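Hi team,

Below is the intake form for YozD family protein from Lederbergia wuyishanensis. Please confirm the fields before the structure is written into the shared record.

FORM ID: S-0412
PROTEIN: YozD family protein
ORGANISM: Lederbergia wuyishanensis
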Amino acid sequence: MRETEVFIDTEEIAEFFYRELIKRGYVPTELESEELADITFDYLISKCIIEEWDE
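The structure came back. Fields below:
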């Protein structure tokens, strides 16, 4: 299996969740969207889909 570099931007994830929740009739706060993005990031790490990397 080939290794590929993927960069995950939690701000981008938060914006995505915000837009998608609005489409579904929910009105999240900015903080709620950021929390969902952080949870998603932690989930991806816990499943070994990504690994945290500090520059």
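SUMMARY LINE: The radius of gyration is 13 Å.

Thanks, M.
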